[in-house]
Each structure stands twice: as structure tokens, then as C-alpha cells.
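step=encode ok
step=design start
structure_in=
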């Protein structure tokens, strides 16, 4: 559905530009924006490679294991049924650690592995368990200590101080994660 909306907006804009005699401006804008998109994408690929490499170093050096030791007691409280299954907990910790470091692209494969492992032990296949719902909420609203993706985008876009968003990001993601867990607890009683 959203594809139709965007297509409609794009076509209406182009047609309106041509009708008002600004076809040249529209075509120049299209060419300029595609060139800027390619440049931004190349810059982001480099920055994402850097941060994914940092995450790999953190994994190999044991930093992620230290974080997992810190997270494990908390996970036992949040994920009552799944926290005892190492097949579920290992990718879950890597997903949450990647999200905490702001590496959402690196977190995605671990999130998929976690959900697949949870589905294996799910007695009602195709229906999300409470732990699955909690993980999805926590994955979407994970506390980010270093929002590297946003910092990378701001740096690639020419921001003078791309790291200024660290404190606001910690606060907003913490509030979102806490509220998400509260809402999950409330909704579990009714569904």
C-alpha cells in the first residue's frame, strides 16, 4: 500500500512540475538527488563496515561476553520461559548487544536466529509467544548507548557535531524500552 502512496506522490509532483513549466527544475532535482543518494550510500557503507568490524572485534575480544554476563540476569527476569535455552539466549544476547552499540544492521541476523529458535520450542506454531512479543518490542526499542548508525548518517551528511545525539538517544531509547516492557506485561494479562 505504501508503495502506491509514494508512487502517487512522485507522479503528482512530476506532473505538477511539468504543467507549471518547471520540468527542467524537476529533472535537474531528480538527477541531483540520485547523485547525492549514491554518495551518501557509499559513505554509509564505509561507516557500517567500520562499525561492524568494531563489533566483530568486541565479539572476538570478549567484550560481548562481558555484556552477556551483565545482561543474563536481566534476561531471566524479562524472558521467563526462553532464558534457560542456550540456543535462544546466545543469538538474543548478540542481538541486544549489537542494538546497544547502535548496530541495527548487525543485530538483524541475530534477531532472526533468536525468533527461529523461539519458534522451534513454540507449542502453538505460527502464534507468537509472550517471550517472542517481548523480544520483538525490546529489539525494536532497545536501549542504545552509542547510536552508531545515526551518528554515521549525521557525519556523512556533514553535521558539525554528529555525536551530540548520544545523551538524547540513551534517554529516549531507555524510556521506549521500559515502556514497551510495561505494556507487554499489561497486555499479557488480557491476551
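sequence_out=
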Amino acid at each position: 500500500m505504501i508503495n502506491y502512496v509514494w508512487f502517487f506522490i512522485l507522479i503528482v509532483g512530476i506532473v505538477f512540475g511539468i504543467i507549471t513549466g518547471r520540468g527542467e527544475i524537476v529533472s535537474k532535482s531528480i538527477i541531483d538527488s540520485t547523485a547525492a543518494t549514491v554518495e551518501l550510500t557509499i559513505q554509509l557503507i564505509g561507516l557500517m563496515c567500520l562499525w561492524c568490524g568494531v563489533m566483530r572485534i568486541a565479539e572476538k575480544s570478549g567484550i560481548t561476553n562481558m555484556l552477556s554476563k551483565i545482561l543474563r540476569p536481566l534476561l531471566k527476569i524479562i524472558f521467563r520461559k526462553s532464558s534457560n535455552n542456550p540456543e535462544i539466549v546466545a543469538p538474543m544476547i548478540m542481538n541486544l548487544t549489537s542494538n546497544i552499540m547502535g548496530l541495527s544492521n548487525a543485530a538483524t541476523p541475530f534477531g532472526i536466529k533468536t525468533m527461529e529458535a523461539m519458534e522451534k520450542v513454540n507449542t502453538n506454531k505460527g502464534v507468537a509467544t509472550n517471550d517472542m512479543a517481548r523480544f520483538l518490542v525490546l529489539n525494536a526499542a532497545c536501549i542504545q548507548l552509542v547510536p552508531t548508525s545515526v551518528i554515521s548518517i549525521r557525519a556523512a551528511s556533514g553535521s558539525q557535531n554528529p555525536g551530540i545525539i548520544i545523551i538524547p538517544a540513551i534517554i529516549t531509547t531507555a524510556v521506549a524500552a521500559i515502556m514497551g516492557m510495561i505494556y507487554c506485561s499489561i497486555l499479557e494479562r488480557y491476551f
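step=design ok
step=annotate ok -> The radius of gyration is 21 Å.
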